[in-house]
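Input record, target 12 of the design panel.
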């Protein structure tokens, strides 16, 4: 294998955190995609980006070919407040600066940095830092209003991070306010400790408007793994959360494993199996390869680095190659916009960089076995068709009636084409939205494989509803019908930091500007945790707020776990 330069970007020096040029290339010796960079003061650095060069290159070109164009950003002319002039250069002017290319899809708020655990791998908890950072209710509302003011399309997804968000006593009030302001999906990232203690609290979360629980989930029954990752065996707590959510009929749990090489990468199979067996309440798994903090040498970096490409290999080994293609997140950007438009609800667009992660679906057949989604339909074809229809809608094009059933063998579909037949007979009486919905439906039929079998399959009844009645709600139901969303978000650290990724980040933190409290800083996720968090938190830390000693927190959680172990 010969060395090949894939692209150039800007990174930062892991020592001084100053910007330096970087190359993404295929290493001739190892056969991996690597990043290399040089700091005049601190020398050379390299990091592993992918172990699969061909797939990595496919990801880059695939997103350009099929992914969405950016028709919404946070540039000064399009957002009401929070824009910073470029003074120190990208990414140091996050606030957000005018260089950013993608609008936020998910607005993130840290309701508190307090926590009821002392996880060794955590960067945010107050007990470790010795100070509390906790915005007031009014400050959080200010942040919510900032995000909702973004033009032309504000984010509709809100996520609580932290710290442990459930330690806020007013979290329900914050959620209700968020829904009032127009956030249609509110997600809470949680360790589950408080949820495990009370079915009633879980019900209150759901009734206040929480739509999804992003449950920290690093292993199943592996006490030593839990202790390494979180300081204590949390397995009894995770089981109790699932039980409590099932009791109240909550079906929006996403398992979120942080994967550390040599620590819990052997737990991926158990986690996927657990998600499969609890698909009545678990909608999917969002893997997060661990970000590496602190100063380490190259050998240690290679020992610890776990990439999304490593994860893909592991998933296919476990599922007998059930995923033919791991689509970059941005692949579905136009598809989600299309579904929202069909449903006449607020939209969002996942126009992220291809290196940020992937999203796909694993199907569970009637024998409880993993099956490739591509067995049932041509996913790439569906995405291309969705993009074509969305582009027509943006250009206000009207398809010709004769084009609706072109190249479709009606005998394969039985009576399901009656909707299209009725439509063609009376096209003049339909509104434009219904015209395009029917047009999408007709074209999507061409991408269903073996339609006479698929359209009568119990597994794919939800998929056919998604195609025949394309809405965000039918897409959500699809994931809770013997299907699991499998996703990966590989957040950056100082070693693999890539400014191209940052400029296309769609997950933005909202923070009150400590230098001008009338403004809200809008900060891409990876720059927040790599460059901005510490200095902002030091300015925002609450006076006269003592933190609980880590050993007290540890003793409390250990005592609680012992009290419930016999019940699980």
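The sequence produced for target 12 reads:
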């Amino acid at each position: 294998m010969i060395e090949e330069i894939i692209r150039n970007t800007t990174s930062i020096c892991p020592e001084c955190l100053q910007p330096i040029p970087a190359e993404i290339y295929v290493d001739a010796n190892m056969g991996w995609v690597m990043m290399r960079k040089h700091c005049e003061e601190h020398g050379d650095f390299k990091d592993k980006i992918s172990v699969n060069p061909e797939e990595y290159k496919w990801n880059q070109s695939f997103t350009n070919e099929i992914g969405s164009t950016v028709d919404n950003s946070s540039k000064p002319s399009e957002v009401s407040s929070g824009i910073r002039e470029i003074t120190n250069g990208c990414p140091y002017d996050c606030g957000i600066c005018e260089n950013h290319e993608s609008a936020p899809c998910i607005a993130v708020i840290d309701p508190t940095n307090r926590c009821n655990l002392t996880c060794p791998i955590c960067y945010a908890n107050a007990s470790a830092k010795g100070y509390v950072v906790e915005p007031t209710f009014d400050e959080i509302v200010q942040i919510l209003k900032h995000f909702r003011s973004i033009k032309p399309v504000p984010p509709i997804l809100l996520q609580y991070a932290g710290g442990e968000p459930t330690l806020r006593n007013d979290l329900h009030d914050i959620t209700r306010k968020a829904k009032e302001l127009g956030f249609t999906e509110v997600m809470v990232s949680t360790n589950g400790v408080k949820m495990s203690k009370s079915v009633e609290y879980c019900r209150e979360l759901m009734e206040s408007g929480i739509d999804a629980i992003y449950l920290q989930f690093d292993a199943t029954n592996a006490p030593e793994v839990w202790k390494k990752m979180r300081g204590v065996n949390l397995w009894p707590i995770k089981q109790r959360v699932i039980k409590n959510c099932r009791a109240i009929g909550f079906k929006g749990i996403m398992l979120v494993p942080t994967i550390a090489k040599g620590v819990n990468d052997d737990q991926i199979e158990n986690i996927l199996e657990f998600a499969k067996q609890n698909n009545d309440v678990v909608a999917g798994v969002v893997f997060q390869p661990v970000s590496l903090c602190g100063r380490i040498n190259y050998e240690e970096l290679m020992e610890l680095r776990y990439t999304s490409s490593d994860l893909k290999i592991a998933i296919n080994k476990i599922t007998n190659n059930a995923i033919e293609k791991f689509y970059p997140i941005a692949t579905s950007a136009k598809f989600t916009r299309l579904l929202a438009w069909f449903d006449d609800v607020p939209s969002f667009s996942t126009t992220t960089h291809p290196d940020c992660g992937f999203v796909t679906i694993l199907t569970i057949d009637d024998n409880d076995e993993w099956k490739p989604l591509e067995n049932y339909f041509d996913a790439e074809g569906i995405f291309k068709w969705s993009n074509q229809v969305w582009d027509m809608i943006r250009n206000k094009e009207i398809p010709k009636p004769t084009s609706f059933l072109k190249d479709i063998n009606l005998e394969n579909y039985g009576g399901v084409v009656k909707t299209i037949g009725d439509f063609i007979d009376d096209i003049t009486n339909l509104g434009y939205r219904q015209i395009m919905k029917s047009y999408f439906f007709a074209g999507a039929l061409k991408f269903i494989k073996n339609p006479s079998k698929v359209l009568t399959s119990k597994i794919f009844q939800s998929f056919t509803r998604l195609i025949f009645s394309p809405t965000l709600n039918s897409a959500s139901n699809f994931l809770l019908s013997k299907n699991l969303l499998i996703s990966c978000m590989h957040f950056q650290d100082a070693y693999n930091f890539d400014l191209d990724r940052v400029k296309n980040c769609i997950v933005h933190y909202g923070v009150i500007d400590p230098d001008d409290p009338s403004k809200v800083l809008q900060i891409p996720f990876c720059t927040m945790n790599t460059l901005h968090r510490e200095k902002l938190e030091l300015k925002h830390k609450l006076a006269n707020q003592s933190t609980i000693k880590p050993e007290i927190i540890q003793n409390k959680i250990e005592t609680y776990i012992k009290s419930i172990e016999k019940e699980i």
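Confidence is low (pLDDT under 50) at residues 76-81, 423-428, 458-472.
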